Amino acid sequence: MSTRDIVLIALFTALTAVLGAFPPLMIPALGVPVTAQSLGPMLAGGILGAKRGALSMLLFNVLIAVGLPILAGGRGGLAVYAGPSAGFILGWIAAAGVTGLIVERLWSGLNFVTAFIASVIGGIVVLYGIGVPWITAVTGTPLGKTFAGSAVFIPGDLAKAGVAAAAIVLIKRAYPMIRHAHSRS
Amino acid sequence: MIAGLYRAGDSPLHRTRPGLKLLSLAIAGTALLALSSLWLAGAAMVLIFGLYCLAGFGLRTMIEQVRPAAFILAILAFAQLWLAGPSEALLFVTRFAVLILAAGLVTLTTRTSDLVTALEVALSPLSRFGLNVSGISLAISLAIRFIPAIGQILSELREAQIARGRKPTVLTLVVPMIIRLLKMADSIAEAIDARS
């Protein structure tokens, strides 16, 4: 891992923190706030690739744990991990890793559709696959009920996967980051 | 630098070593999850209230700690009420509130820098197995410094787009933002390598 890799990891950690400060969008029909912050794992994985993307989300979790209020709404600290929805924050590590893995595999022919699929699988399927069973495990609430409660956030997350996919494709064209790392492995 | 959630103070809790607080939290958390008596959970709540008072905090600080999780806890408590009855639901809420309050208390009474040091100390034996501990320290301190810098770049981009009569959106801000960060990365890495 070069100094440049460490700098890139830290930059995407900080970017994710700043995305949390974007004013949240309200979806009136659902009444749930949609923050830009969960773009972070999709962007980190899709732009830096699996390894650096996952490490930047791990670093994001470390910064929360040591007491920085960097989650949307100024939340942070160890209390985040004591709450029932901690799996959705820790799950960002795997979400970035899987998004990155798929983008690396499809790198040479990457377009909006494949980048969108990568973002949806990493940032929604994998993330909910960790976050939902986590709630069930720590609270004993049946899986079906936890999923139904979490599903209201999926439309917002689909919109974010669209934004992430567009960004991933545009940035690949302007400043590709993955090719070198991938050809080496 | 951005401010952490630490609240300065000189209570016995503030002076306790971070490692000891983290260990106590881990033990207390495990014990709490195994707790099945409402009376014991109530006692734990009284104990945590006492600890907050000892640290110089009041009820307001306690409410602030629980508030972010209040919505999801309310929904889950409602599900418990329906599935298992009122005493189970009350036990559920009390247990989680105490757990969140205990974790929050460690954050409130321990400086971010002390927690980072505790993490580095805990990880240092792993450097023998190839873990780049100094790289981890570098990443942590860089990320903390980048947050206000990136916030600054973002508001500049937003103002520039408004000045040109365009309405900034997440996409029109994030793309130029990331390209700028990727370009910055090279010069920052060179500067770090040159100094070490």
UniProtKB/TrEMBL annotation, chain A:
Keyword set includes Disulfide bond: no
Annotated membrane topology: Multi-pass membrane protein
A Gene Ontology molecular function term of the record: biotin transmembrane transporter activity
Localization terms from the record: Cell membrane
Alphabetical list of InterPro entries matching this protein: BioY
Transmembrane region(s): 30-48, 55-72, 78-103, 110-135, 147-171
Name of the protein described by the UniProt record: Biotin transporter
UniProt source species: Jiella flava
Automatic annotation (TrEMBL), chain B:
Cellular compartments per GO CC: plasma membrane
UniProt keyword Acyltransferase, yes or no: no
Keyword annotations: Membrane, Transmembrane, Transmembrane helix
Annotated TM spans: 22-54, 66-83, 89-108, 129-147
Signal peptide: none
Coiled coil among keywords: no
Membrane topology label: Multi-pass membrane protein
InterPro entries found in the cross-reference section: ABC/ECF_trnsptr_transmembrane
Coiled-coil region: none
Highest taxon listed in the record's lineage: Bacteria
Primary site of residence: membrane
Localisation per UniProt entry: Membrane
Matches recorded under PANTHER family: PROTEIN ABCI12, CHLOROPLASTIC
UniProt record similarity statement: Belongs to the CbiQ family.
Protein's name according to its UniProt entry: Energy-coupling factor transporter transmembrane protein EcfT
Provenance organism: Jiella flava
Higher taxonomy: Bacteria, Pseudomonadati, Pseudomonadota, Alphaproteobacteria, Hyphomicrobiales
